[in-house]
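A note from the maintainers: we've had questions about how concatenated examples are separated. There is no special marker in the raw files; a new sequence line simply starts the next protein. For clarity in this README we add a label.
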Amino acid sequence: MDLSALFGAEDETEMPITARFNVAPTAPVPIVRVSQRRAQRVLQTARWGLLPPWATDVRAGARMINARAETVATSRAFAPSFARRRCLVPADGWFEWVKPAGKGAKQAYYMTPADGGELAFAGLWTVWGEADAKVLTCSIITTAARSTLTAVHDRMPLLLPPDRWDAWLAPAAGEESLLAPPPDDYLAGLELRPVGPAVGNVRNDGPELIAPIAADALRPPPEDPATLTLF
């Protein structure tokens, strides 16, 4: 898919963006942000895991892959980017793990648009480092799960329908209304697809990771979704 055309952005990526099916923290991911220099949207790649100015090492980003919607506007690490450096993080979907109430292995689910469309996660970006060592980094904002997604987790990425992209990318500060979750009818268009356990190994990557498994291989759903982990 041509992300630059989909998001109306100038492609500033140094290499073509290839499909990834199992993205781990600190990996490069595509983002769409507004470039003040170009006065338009640009498509770039950023390291997943925002690095605040006081970070002493890039490894600190592994702990900052997600920002909670409830605290992002006041967090010392994320508030400056929420006010001035917001971005869209394109994705086809995301994984969650369901832990059964009793003993047994966890079941992986892939949340993706049923019509095969693209998602946009609400994200933040910043540049860390100096001179030639500068690194573009990002985080994804999460919010309380809604609609059918509560069946697999109590939280979810903050999804932005296309009619919210302009407002999210605007430079104005203090717009906490932007953190409202998407409407339930938008979420109703998501498929909760059970997939195999191979996604649990970050070294695995390929379209087979998002293939649905047979019904007789499906493990039972959890009684307590709060036991799950996001990303």
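[label: protein 2]
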Amino acid sequence: MSLFIIGDVHGCFHSYLKLMDHWEPKTETLIQLGDLVDRGNFSPLTVRLAFEIKKVFKNSVHFLRGNHEQMMIKYLLGGDHSDHWLNNGGRQTLEQFSKHKIDPKKYIDWLNAMPLYWENKNVVVSHAGFSGVGSPLDLNNPDGVLWNRKSLVNLGKIQVIGHTPLVDGRPEFQSSSNSWNIDTGAYKGNCLTGIKLNNDGTFLEVISIPTDPKDIDNPSNQASTIKTKKTIQKNFITYK
């Protein structure tokens, strides 16, 4: 199985659907590197779709935790007594859950079970990458795999990360750290990006989908009229 790794979605549901059309479930392991939620207009639908995909495809699909999932988890479990998440997109996300009549706590166990990274012998995927500073898996380490903005260390394998949106909306390879950043700023109106690699880390293809305007505008009617009837097909899930 080759790898299809998707960057930060940030509630850009329609862009996410278009990118998922490029996934080949029979031959590709799907990995999403975190930040499904906040910023865009459709966080609840994005979470629900990811949850259903994981239920169907189980071990061939991996949704990793990003810093926005971490903030959401902490808030929903009552551990955030500040406005940290609310001021970073959480307030709008809660409004969206209410509008769609979806209880975010339905997904809290799944969110809280999200791993911090995925790896094989040649590739490691995490939200913000390994900086070499402090414990990388410490949820509160500002230089850990959830929050890091520092340069990455070379782990001797390909790293694929997101977290820091690239200004020009194009994925970037850094030879010094042997790493790809594939956060191309979907919520900023750029594009949502996925990268395909062989299991040995060999590059195959980059797929970038321009952000669907519905995901970042504030449509007055579309949010209330969108239909998300689930159809489970033999090899994939579609929402119509």
